[in-house]
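Example (one chain per record):
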Amino acid sequence: MGDSPRSRSITIVNDDPSRLILVTESVVKRLKGSAGQAKAKEVEEPIHSISSGPDITSRKSDTLTSREEELLEIEGYWMERLQSMEDKHTRINHLAERDFERSLADYERKFGSATVAPPKCHLNIKEILECYKKNPNQTLKCNKEIKAFSECLDGLYVQDCR
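Predicted structure:
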């Protein structure tokens, strides 16, 4: 376990081409397998540099402008897509409105226009409420109004059954 030689593998993935990786001489020697070790007191200066682009300053400005252009293209794409979806929904809405108008016209042709009838026994309800307001603690005094309301409802039931 302790005496067996170890094999190390280092993989560096540089996703950003504008970044620069600096490597010292001792790291290069160790990567090549050289036995040279760096002294602890010695200050290591970067000797070898690995770059993925020509000049980092011009690369940064190129990258920023290209990213801005890319973002503008993406924004334009989504704006066009949003506009096309809005147009599609507007067309669907017009079709739905037209179908509703046709259905309403068909209904009116078959059954006539819909008229709103006043609520039946509405006056009886008003009379009961007024009586309750006049006699808040004596509800039995409103028996006459309740009987009239009940007769009105019975009359409606008899009419519906015919």
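Caption: The chain is about 60% helix and 5% strand.
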